[in-house]
TrEMBL record:
Pfam families: Lyase_aromatic (PF00221). Belongs to the PAL/histidase family. GO terms for molecular function: ammonia-lyase activity. This is Phenylalanine ammonia-lyase. Keywords: Lyase. Signal peptide: none annotated. GO terms for biological process: L-phenylalanine catabolic process. GO terms for cellular component: cytoplasm. InterPro entries: Aromatic_Lyase, Fumarase/histidase_N, L-Aspartase-like, Phe/His_NH3-lyase_AS, Phe_NH3-lyase, Phe_NH3-lyase_shielding_dom_sf.
């Protein structure tokens, strides 16, 4: 069976691992740069290098020479001898000054003193303002992608500009670029102009040096001095060649699509784990269902979820229930149908972004081989807009699925016997996941808002010359925010899943201990009046009804739950006692036996549950019940991240009164729930969790 989305995601992940393990740099040659290569440079500090392929380098020289020939012949070339955009009706022979004029009218973005490291000027800055600079990883990716495009030899830009840009990049230097101001129509003009300002050594362009945690800032001319570079004087078309491209929106798109692919795979694993936590059925994902509706994404999602759930003792492929819901609710049962189209959209989005990485995206284009200059519109970044709209919508759709599953899991009226808010202690004083449930609603609401399409909001710009413009960078920025929110939803859901699985398996451990004890109490009080066969039927019926009542009363504190369970199961016990097979209807003092059994069983249930819970707090056996794939996720959270099973009120960091913690004196994690979820969130964002998923054995995935 083919798994196109998973294979794409795994291949890209493996490529990134190989790049990071390699001693060599990411080499750019204009046609083989991958999204993984962009991520390696932008997020992991990998060095970049220009190819030594003479044919590639010669094409760059040829494009510069051809342009000079055209100018010597007096030919008109847009942006070289003409004005720009709607002002292209002007003509000039001052080709170098024209490029400076372009630079001048593009270095116009809004930045704060703090964005540029001007601490002495921050007194003039209003408190509470967010940073107005484009994140450094996007800027680094932008520098790399623009260089990769320029060496394709269609732009008429000298190699020295490419080499100097890469030198600065490899010294962990990047210009401080305004966050807003690009409509990604004639390319990302304004953001890319700050690369030129850096190469020119402008005293008013600032360069970010080092990582984002401990950066320093230098004026561009100082950065050039540090790296031993000379300021660049722009020649014909070089200003236009540098800024007239889609590298900024493509850079943001690369970072967004890489993480989005990971979250899509993870959502399938979490659906499998959620099916276990909710005691759902693996039959939801039977291949016959998807084969009758042969959408490739749905077929793949069903197969992936089935593989992840394989080996679970909590979610067998059972038939419809005879009591209660006959089938799982939509958030589980229709997960393949919901996720499948998103996988197809993400695969297409990936192809669009990957193609753009190795594209020439400026205007005019130089075809030195055939002696032609082409005036066109490759700078129109709608392919990135299209990719980002699909990616952002996919994040919203998968986020909604995770939210729906999570809501069902926390609600004791829907989660098949787990306590409300997934508290491990008394529900009257413990609301473990209630706040997380509210957080999930907040994340989901914002994610849904971000999913709205950007493209309908196009405004005519630049003398109505740019009457249609892609807004690709805006779309990519919002997609990165959507990825951030989806990561928060994912991390929160993982925390809740692990808590739910522990509670589910705690119940199973309790049942294993309690059933023989209750069976002996039944034998003690009622066994003498019936045959062994009749007693077996009697005890089985009584225990089954008792457990059903126990699960339905999970909203009560333990003491009240035990009493209510025995009280509400009394009618069935009496019915069993007077049934024809029991032989108890004529037993003297039957009511006294029932009363004594009820009292003893109430005490036994409370004592056994308390003891089992205390043992389980110290040693969880959850991994032995769930699928191998879910166990990998669970063990990563519990053992590597050291995020423990939450015991309830006892784990509040400042609580010191043993009377409020059932006398429990054991120290908890010393962290609030938000800090524990944050540990998982960081593992989602930094790739550690993705490594676990990608490394699952075939038998575990």
């Amino acid at each position: 069976m083919s798994f196109p989305h998973f294979e794409l995601t795994h291949t890209e992940w493996a490529d990134l691992q190989n790049i990071l393990k390699s001693d060599g740099p990411v080499v750019i040659d204009g046609h083989s740069l991958t999204i993984a290569g962009v991520v390696a440079v932008a997020l992991h500090g990998k060095k970049a290098a220009l190819t030594d392929d003479a044919a590639v380098l010669d094409r760059v020289h040829e494009s510069v020479q051809f342009l000079e020939t055209q100018l010597d012949k007096g030919h008109t070339v847009y942006g070289v001898t003409t004005g720009f955009g709607g002002s292209a009706d002007t003509r000039t022979d001052k080709v170098k000054s024209l490029q400076v004029a372009l630079q001048q009218h593009q270095n116009v973005g809004v930045l704060l003193p703090s964005d540029k490291g001007l601490l002495s000027d921050t007194a003039t800055q209003v408190n509470g303002l967010r940073g107005h600079a484009l994140p450094v990883p996007i800027v680094k990716a932008m520098m790399l992608i623009r260089c990769n495009s320029l060496i394709r030899g269609h732009s008429g830009v000298r190699l020295v500009l490419v080499k100097n840009t890469l030198t600065l990049l490899n010294h962990d230097m990047s210009p401080v670029v305004p966050l807003r101001g690009s409509i990604s129509a004639s390319g990302d003009l304004m953001p890319l102009s700050y690369i030129i300002g850096m190469l020119e050594g402008s005293p008013d362009i600032f360069v970010h040096v080092g990582d984002e945690q401990n950066p320093t800032f230098l004026p561009a001319y100082k950065a050039l001095e540090v790296t031993g570079l000379q300021p660049i004087s722009l020649q014909a078309k070089e200003g236009l060649g540098m800024v007239n491209g889609t590298a900024t929106s493509c850079a943001a798109g690369c970072l967004a699509i890489y993480e989005a692919q990971q979250l899509a795979v993870l959502s399938q694993l979490l659906t499998a784990t959620g099916t276990e936590a909710l005691l759902g059925t693996a039959h939801n994902y039977h291949p016959f269902i998807s084969e009758t509706r042969p959408h490739t994404g749905q077929i793949e999602a069903a197969a992936n979820i089935s593989a992840y759930i394989s080996g679970s003792s909590l979610a067998p492929g059972k038939h419809p229930e005879t009591i209660g819901l006959a089938q799982d609710r939509y958030s589980l049962r229709t997960a393949p149908q919901w996720i499948g189209p998103q996988l197809e959209d993400l695969a297409l989005a990936h192809r669009q972004v990957q193609a753009e990485v190795n594209s020439t995206t400026d205007n005019p284009l130089i075809d030195a081989k055939n002696g032609l200059v082409h005036h066109g519109g490759n700078f129109q970044a709608v392919c990135i807009t299209s990719a980002m709209e699909k990616t952002r919508s996919s994040m919203q759709m998968m986020g909604k699925l995770m939210f729906a599953q999570c809501t069902e899991l926390i609600n004791s009226q829907m989660n098949r016997g787990l306590p409300p808010n997934l508290c491990a202690d008394d529900p009257s004083l413990s609301y473990t996941c209630k706040g997380l449930d509210i957080n999930m609603a907040a994340y989901m609401s914002e994610l849904a808002y971000l999913a709205h399409s950007i493209s309908p909001h196009v405004q005519s710009a630049e003398m109505h010359n740019q009457a249609v413009n892609s807004l690709a960078l805006i779309s990519a920025r919002y997609t990165l925010e959507a990825v951030e929110l989806m990561s928060m939803i994912t991390a929160t859901y993982i925390y809740i899943l692990c808590q739910a699985l522990d509670l589910r398996c705690l119940h199973l451990e309790f049942v294993q201990v309690a059933q023989p004890v209750i069976n002996e109490l039944l034998r003690e009080h009622f066994g003498s009046a019936m045959t062994e066969e009749s007693f077996g039927e009697f005890s089985h019926r009584t225990w089954k009804f008792l457990v059903e009542k126990w699960l339905s009363l999970s909203h009560l504190d333990l003491e009240h739950r035990c009493k209510a369970t025995m009280k509400e199961s009394l009618s069935d016990l009496i019915s069993a006692c007077i049934s024809d097979y029991s032989g108890l209807r004529n037993k003297p003092e039957i009511l006294g036996h029932i009363e004594r059994y009820q009292q003893a069983a109430t005490e036994a249930l409370g004592s056994i549950y308390n003891t089992t819970r205390e043992v389980f707090f110290r040693h969880q056996t959850t991994a032995s019940y769930i699928s191998p794939a879910s166990a990998q996720l669970y063990n990563f959270v519990r053992k590597e991240l050291k995020v423990p099973f939450h015991r309830g009120l006892a784990d509040h960091p400042t609580l010191r009164d043993p009377s409020l913690t059932n006398g429990d004196k054991d120290a908890g994690p010393g962290k609030h729930l938000g800090s524990l979820v944050s540990e998982i969130y960081l593992a989602v964002r930094n790739g550690r969790l993705h490594d676990i998923v990608m490394n699952l054995d075939k038998g575990e995935a």
